[in-house]
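Lecture notes, part 5. Sequence design as translation. It can be helpful to think of inverse folding as translation between two languages: the language of shapes and the language of residues. The source text, in structure tokens, appears below.
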């Protein structure tokens, strides 16, 4: 972690120091206390050395660290939670649950412990509301969490995402009150959270977010408001967002726009092949100076656009490699691309959202900055096309014959055409032909990036045939015939690496 970010481990309220110490380890306690002093002083080198000295006793540390948290014997509780998770590993859940459920523990510490436990896939809003109700001052805790997330640049999107999930669970009047409190307290620092609030499925919250953005004019707001103007479901909201976007873009004759700040350097930009259900994964990896990674996954769909976004603000290279390997184990290769290409894919997905008036996931705005090397991005940032032209492949019977093996290629193993889709693809509807042809041209672009030029040529020949061939000819096309007999039930879909 950067030294400037170490302050995120400081408590934002006074943590009482217990008078009675029920569990004290005379050998380890001094090392832990020195680690706390190091993090509060911003001494990263000393912190690393002390963690190394503690590592041989990692089996004894989870209980000791848990007791320090419960008894209020730590002056850097968020650091202690990090150490607890690191030393306990996959066995951390019982210790974290003890901290999260103890009403004597400070609210923000409980909130932070509960965040690390994760949430069930179903009934998440109900569980979040129940946990908030157990805190002494739940609304203040959400404000304090935003303070932790915005201590340094760039803001901690993972923490803000957790706050956003609580805001989404709250009833509208209370959500608006908390959001207004956050905006009033943090000003432009609350910008990313306000951008995300534009896409909460509640018109009153959207209007409040628009008003606060108009008042504060946080950096990058014009892009978020323009996305709302393009995709909002009602004409009233689209008109309000369009007017707000125009006001945000106004520039004084002798004025300048907000200063652009750098994000951590890009290390990887990845795109998966498009799977049989039309899903594609776009991944951005940036690296902090301490070697940890900021990772964002965008789940896209060929018809719906942006379906989901998930990210980790700070993860190790090993965990990153494991999550990327899990994607490939599902049968879809990942291809290294450049950032303009990734932005091109996301831009096309956003256009599909707008065309269908589909609401963006609110968390998109918290992670979208990772698509840029500087934020707010420059006005004319490069965006690349991500499909190839098939015009030169219109008369290639040799390549069409070779397409008999195309369905078994890793890029197409999850593809199938069944029932109505099969009939459409074989020529009954020109719209379905165009849809399938566009997917093939995108796969061809990825194959070229992957260095598989032979398969690229076969794919482009099939795409060109879709443009002009009569129905009878398509019914004999080897690749399409293979897809038509493949059973859809055997095809798995792409999922995000993290729940």
């Amino acid at each position: 972690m950067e030294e400037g970010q170490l302050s995120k481990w400081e408590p934002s309220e006074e943590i009482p120091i217990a008078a009675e110490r029920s569990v004290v380890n005379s050998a380890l306690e001094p090392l832990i206390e020195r680690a706390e002093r190091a993090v509060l002083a911003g001494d990263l080198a000393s912190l690393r050395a002390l963690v190394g000295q503690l590592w041989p006793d990692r089996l004894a540390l989870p209980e000791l660290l848990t007791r320090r948290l419960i008894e209020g014997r730590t002056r850097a509780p968020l650091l202690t939670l990090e150490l607890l998770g690191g030393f306990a590993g996959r066995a951390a859940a019982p210790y974290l649950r003890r901290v999260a459920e103890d009403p004597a523990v400070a609210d923000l510490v409980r909130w932070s412990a509960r965040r690390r436990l994760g949430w069930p896939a179903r009934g998440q809003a109900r569980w979040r509301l129940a946990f908030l109700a157990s805190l002494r001052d739940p609304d203040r805790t959400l404000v304090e969490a935003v303070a932790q997330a915005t201590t340094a640049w760039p803001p901690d999107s993972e923490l803000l995402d957790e706050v956003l999930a609580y805001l989404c669970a709250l009833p509208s009047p209370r959500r608006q009150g908390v959001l207004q409190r956050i905006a009033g307290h943090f000003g432009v620092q609350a910008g990313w959270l306000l951008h995300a609030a534009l896409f909460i499925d509640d018109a009153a919250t959207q209007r409040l977010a628009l008003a606060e953005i108009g008042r504060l004019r946080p950096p990058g707001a014009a892009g978020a408001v323009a996305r709302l103007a393009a995709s909002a479901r009602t004409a009233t909201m689209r008109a309000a967002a369009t007017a707000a976007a125009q006001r945000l873009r106004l520039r004084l004759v002798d004025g300048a726009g907000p200063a652009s700040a750098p994000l951590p350097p890009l290390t990887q930009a990845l795109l998966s092949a498009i799977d049989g259900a039309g899903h594609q994964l776009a991944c951005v990896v940036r690296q902090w100076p301490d070697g940890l990674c900021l990772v964002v996954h965008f789940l896209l769909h060929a018809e719906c656009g942006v379906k989901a976004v998930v990210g980790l603000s700070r993860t190790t290279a090993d965990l990153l490699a494991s999550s990327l390997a899990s994607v490939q184990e599902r049968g879809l290769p990942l291809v290294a691309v450049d950032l303009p290409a990734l932005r091109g894919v996301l831009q096309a997905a956003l256009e599909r959202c707008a065309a269908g008036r589909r609401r963006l996931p609110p968390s998109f705005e918290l992670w979208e900055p990772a698509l840029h090397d500087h934020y707010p991005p420059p006005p004319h940032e490069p965006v690349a096309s991500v499909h190839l032209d098939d015009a030169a492949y219109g008369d290639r019977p040799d390549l069409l014959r070779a397409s008999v093996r195309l369905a078994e290629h890793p890029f197409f193993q999850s593809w199938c055409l069944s029932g109505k889709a099969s009939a459409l693809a074989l020529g009954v509807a020109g719209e379905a032909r165009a849809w399938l042809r566009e997917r093939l041209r995108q796969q061809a672009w990825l194959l070229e990036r992957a260095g598989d030029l032979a398969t690229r040529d076969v794919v482009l020949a099939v795409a060109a045939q879709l443009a002009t061939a009569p129905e009878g000819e398509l019914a004999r096309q080897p690749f399409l015939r293979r897809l038509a007999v493949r059973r859809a039930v055997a095809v798995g879909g792409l999922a995000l690496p993290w729940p």
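The translated text above is only one of many valid answers, since several sequences can fold into similar shapes. The chain has four domains: 1-101, 119-249, 263-375, 391-490.
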